[in-house]
Amino acid sequence: MADERPPMPKAITRKSDDFDRWYTDTVRRAELADYAPVRGCMVIRPYGYALWERIQRALDDMIKRTGHENMYFPLLIPESYLQKEAEHVKGFAPEVAWVTQGGQKQLEERLAIRPTSETIICSMFADWIHSYRDLPVLINQWCNILRWEKRTRLFLRTTEFLWQEGHTFHETRAEAAREVDTMLDCYRELAEEWLAIPVVPGRKTDSEKFAGAEYTLSIEAMMSDGWALQAGTSHQLGQNFTRAYGITYSDRGNALQHPFQTSWGLSTRIIGGLIMAHGDDAGLVMPPRVAPIQVVVVPVTRSNDPEGAAAVEEACRRLEAAAGEVRLRVDRRDGIRPGEKYNHWELRGVPLRLTVGARDLAAGQVTVTRRVDGESWTESLDGVSGRLPALLTEAQGRIWSRAEGLLRDRTVEVGSLDQLRQAFAKEPVFANAPFCERRECEEAINTAAPALTVRVLRRDRSGEAGRCLACGEPSSEVALIARAY
C-alpha cells in the first residue's frame, strides 16, 4: 500500500508546542530515518543505522558474554506452525501479514511474515533436542520483524522493524527463570550504562504479558514528556510452546520431559526512546558511548588569511591523528558558514564540538562546546586530545544525571484512584501504587484517567504490604502506572 510522504520540515517544532511533531521533525531533520513508500515502513538513513550499529554492538557483546550464540531463521513461517500454540496465534493474529502467492502460483498453505519466531524455532529444535546433554540451548538472532500496525511512528512503532530475539531451552523452571532475569539485566545495563536512560524493571500484568508466556518482565523508561516507553522485554514461556510443538528430551533418569523455554527481545524502538529521553529544541542529544560521532571539529578560517587557514588545517590534522579510539570528524565542507555547521551538528546531537580558529590557535588553544548543556570553554591544543575521553565520560554523566533527575522529580506515590486522577491532572507522571493484581482493579486504573496503564509491578518493591488503590483489599505488589507509547 503506497502512502504519500509528507514534505521534509524546514525547522524543528518546539517540544513545548507539539511533542509528537518535535519528535518526527527531529528524526527526519537529523537524518536518522524517513518514511518509505509503503505505509508504516521507514528507511533508516546512514546516521540512524550507525547509531543502531553502536547499540547493536554493545548488546551483542552482552549476549555473547552471557554464553549465547547467534544464528538465523527464515522470514516466512507456515501457517500450520503458528496454529499449534493457540494463545500465541490469537495474540498476534491482528498483526500478521500473509504471503498467499509465489510467482504466478497460489500457495497451498499461507506463509506468515514473522511477527516473532517462537513457532519456527520450536519446530526446528523439536528435531535437534534429544537429551539433557543438549541443554541448555542459548541462541539469539538479529533480524527484521513485520507486524501490521494501525498507527505508526518512526522508530517507535513501524510495520517493519529491526530487533534481536533470544530463545533458550532449559532443564528446569528455575534455570529458565534465571535466564529471564539475566537478560532483563542486560537490557537494563544497555539502557542505563550506554544510553543514559534510567529504567524501572518489573513484571507485566497478565493482560500485558507476551502471548503464550507464563510471565513477562520488562524495563520501563520515562521520556522527557513524562510518558513511559517499554524498552526491552524478557519472557518465561515455561513448557507452553515445548508441549505444543512436541519438544522432548531424555532427562538424567532416562524419562521423557519437555524443556522450559524463554524468549527476550529489544528493537529499534530503543532509538526512539533515546531521542525522546534526551533531545531538546535544537534536536538530538547523543550519549557519547553510542554516538556515531563523538567529537566534531569545526575549522574557522577567513578567505583573506591563507596563513591562518593553513595553521587551522594543520591543527585539524593533528587532532585527527591523535584521536585514537575517539570517534572524531573534521567538518571541512566548503561554502558553509561556521554557524550553520554548529547548528548541523547540534541537531545531530554530537556530544562535543571543537572550534579551531586562527585567533585561538595564536594562544595555543581551541574552544570546546558540550552539547548536553551548551557550556563552552577553552583547552590547550596540545592537551585537548588526551582530555577527550574524560570529557566524553563527563558528558555521559551529565546526560544521565538530567534524565535521572526527571524520573525522580516526576515520580509520585498514590494510594487511591482519586489520588491517581489528581496526580495526572497537571502533567504525565510515573505513579507508584499498591495493587492486588485483580483484572477488575486493573480496568479501574485504565479508566481513572485517559490512556493510563499498569506498566509493571516493580521488582524492587515486590512483597511490600499495602492496600490496593482500587479495591482496598490487601496487596503485596506496587504497580507503576503511567501513560505509554
Largest sheet: 11 strands, mixed
How far apart are the termini?
A: 25 Å
Question: What is the CATH topology assignment of the largest domain?
Answer: BirA Bifunctional Protein, domain 2
Helix run count? 14
Write out the CATH superfamily name of the largest domain. Answer: Bira Bifunctional Protein, Domain 2
Strand content: 25-35%
Top CATH class of the largest domain: Alpha Beta
- The Cα radius of gyration reads 25 Å
Low-confidence parts lasting 5 or more residues at pLDDT below 50?
A: none
How would you classify the quaternary structure? single chain
Strand segment count? 25
Helix proportion range = 25-40%
Arithmetic mean of pLDDT: 96
Structural class: alpha+beta
In which order are the strands of the major sheet placed?
Answer: 3-7-8-14-11-10-9-22-25-21-20
Shape: globular
Question: How many structural units, i.e. domains?
Answer: 3
Would you give an account of this structure?
The strands form 6 sheets. The chain has an 11-stranded mixed β-sheet. It has a 5-stranded mixed β-sheet with strand order 16-15-17-18-19, with helices on both faces. A 3-stranded antiparallel β-sheet has the order 4-6-5. α2 (46-65) crosses α6. The chain is globular, with a radius of gyration of 25 Å. The chain folds into 3 domains: 19-278, Bira Bifunctional Protein, Domain 2 (BirA Bifunctional Protein, domain 2); 295-387, Anticodon-binding domain (Rossmann fold, 3-Layer(aba) Sandwich); 411-483, C-terminal domain of ProRS (Translation Initiation Factor IF3, 2-Layer Sandwich), CATH 3.30.110.30. The model has no long low-confidence stretch (mean pLDDT 96). By secondary structure, the protein is an alpha+beta fold. β5 (97-102) and β6 (105-113) form a beta hairpin. It contains 14 helices and 25 strands. The chain starts with 18 loop residues before the first helix and ends with a strand.
